[in-house]
Amino acid sequence: MKHLAQITLAAAIAAASMAGAFAGAQAATADPKPPISVKIIGFNDYHGNLQSPGTFGVNTTVPSALRPPVGGAEFMAAHVALMKAGNKNNVVVGAGDFIGATPLISALFYDEPSVETLNRIGLEFNAVGNHEFDKGKDELKRLQNGGCKVTGGLPDPNSCKGFGSSAPGMFDGARYKWLSANVVETATGRTLLPAYGVKTFDGVRVAFIGMTLQATPTIVTPTGVAGLEFRNEAQTVNLLVPRLRALGIEAIVVLVHQGGFQAGSGNANGINGCLSDLKNADGSDSDIRKLVAGLDNAVDLVISGHTHAAYNCSVSTVDVTGAANSGVAVSTPRPTGLPNKAGRLVPVTSSSAFGRVLTEVDVSIDPVTRDIVAVSAANRLVDRTNPAAVAWVAANPQVGNIVASYNTAVSPLASAVIGTITAGMSNTAGSNGEQPAGDLIADAQLQATQPAGVGGAVLAFMNPGGVRSPGIVNPAAVPTYPYDFTYGNAFTVQPFGNSLVTMTLTAQQIKNLLEQQFVGCLGQGTQRVLQISNGLSYSWSAAAPACSKVSSLSFTATDLTVNPPVTTAPPEIIVDAAGVVVNPAKSYRVTVNNFLATGGDGFTVLLGGTNVLGGAQDIDALVAYMAGFKAPLAAYDPSASVLNKPRILRLP
Asked: At residue 207, what are phi and psi to the nearest 5 degrees?
């Protein structure tokens, strides 16, 4: 495809472009061969969503009531089968995060249900995402190769249910191949998993290179990536190109767990939009745009993920004035894509997350040059109301039976009520960085570690990325309150199975920790505002220079083991209004999760904590805290004055 000026989307446009592309080749060939048509079906960030994640529209202008229910493993399998039926030359690929941060229906069984349903969906190659490392490289290899989970030297009772494997009591492992060209074991110098996979279509081989985002060590538990080196994505791809060409391979597709957004529009521009060519809202290049800009001209297509966004940068269906994507191609579409190292536009796609969308890509391959010469891509909803899909599932019920079996196994635990809430608390942060759900979780972790025998903590911090969507809410399409919050709900918001860690920090270390929330301070590359427990409050200035943003940090010792909480000491100033630490050497017992304790999210200050004591799992702390708001006790009211919110003040 490297010689084509036009990248195609609509079938008519694709046909016209193909005719022009092959004119020269056909004229020079005595016995011209027709192009080989291949269908590539891609998706990303499945995150073990065996069941439907709810409704979703082609864009956010579709009224909620008209958005169809989407997703679910059995419907993903149905839609994939329908797409495959149109072309015998097909392949199903992924861009990572297919396990990890999963709902209870998968996580309770060590994500074996995710793998088993992906096997039945027909996945063949999948890039390794950052969440594939949540439980470490050895667990990832087990999921690839099969075998039961062993806990404490004994087979784990929640492993090897076998509902989607060859027999009960077995776990077959993944039939597909996880790929990661840029993740190298430092002890051996070899890639942890295969760098690429190859599939042959009518005698022509196509390579699929799998790529993990290089920043993975900064966003997963450090122990999960110990002994691994994450190399530059584009450079790794480029080094593989000569090797692939030596094998006679010219058609190259990159599956990469890295992405961008449609210029901050979310889904407003439509799932097939490419608003501002994925530049950030401030005009800077997005992570995926920077990655593609470094790619060798040999790469024909990039299927991306990570950001949970939907976009299709292949042919724009917006006019030159940037009008909103209507979903209908205009008469003079302009070619789009992201520019590679040579300046050529490369098609780049992403399919939202949770099985809501599939990307259907039709490519044409010149059988003589063995190169991809045309691309037609479209993001399509996994619509559960599609009659054809329903017919397919009815005729082939295996996937639905797998989901139903795991749902039956998990239901007693998932449906157990742990507490009642009077209003929803989302995981969306305000301009100050405070998340309503984050406040509650930080309080739960403080309560769990306040007794002297389990930590003696006086304050707690929670990483914002660990508070998952949708938060502590009634997840119904039309939520009502009060709502009986269940264990399944709790696991959705805290799915990682992190353990609590209590350590001693000085006042100076606490100040440094809060400064490290902001870009440019102590190596921090991304702004991440920690969620803080009741009794702590501070201000931060957006305009102040790095490492000088935090001021007016006050602490009021508060006992959360009683309901309602009570103040046990008068307020004290840790950092004054000028940003000066009043008593730098004074120490405090502080609780975080093990992800943060080991330097996760770039919070290296916590590596200097002393007198470290491990504790319970985070989900258990949340359940215990919510028990104080379970009938016949009063429900949790997020607006109650005793919660002392807001706890963070943002200054200009």
From this structure: -100, 140
Comparing 27 with 144, the larger pLDDT belongs to 144
Cβ-based neighbours of 90, under 8 Å, separated by 6 or more = 38, 39, 40, 41, 83, 84
**Angstrom distance (rounded) from CA 551 to CA 539:** 5
| Cβ density class 527-561: b for 16+ within 10 Å, e for less | ebbbbbbbbbbbbbbeebeebebbbbbebbebbbe
Q: How far apart are CA 313 and CA 352, in angstroms?
A: 14
481-519 confidence digits (pLDDT tens): 999 999 999 999 999 888 899 999 999 999 999 999 999
The mean pLDDT of 150-158, rounded to a whole number, is 92
| Strand pairing class (499-506; 531-532) | unpaired
Sign of CA dihedral 498, 502, 503, 509: positive
Closest CA to 303 of 126, 117, 174: 126
Token readout for 287 is 């992570």
**What's the token pair of residue 34?**
């027709």
Give the chain's largest Cα–Cα span.
92
Specify the pLDDT at position 497: 84
Pairing relationship of beta strands 125-127 and 177-179 according to DSSP bridges: parallel
Distances (CA, A) of 233 to 207, 240, 632: 16, 11, 55
Residue 313 is inside which H or E element, if any?
A: strand 310-313
Helix (H, G, I), strand (E, B) or coil at 401: helix
Q: Of 413, 425, 414, nearest to 467 (Cα)?
A: 425
DSSP 585: T
Buried b or exposed e, range 132-149, using 16+ CB within 10 angstroms: bbbbbbebbebbbebebb
Tokens coding 409: 């196994």
Question: Where residue 330 falls among pLDDT bands split at 50, 70, 90?
Answer: very low
Coil, helix or strand at residue 362: strand
pLDDT at 24: 41
Cα(480)–Cα(39) distance, rounded to whole angstroms?
44
The pLDDT tens digits for 249-291 are 999 999 999 999 997 666 778 999 998 889 887 788 999 999 9
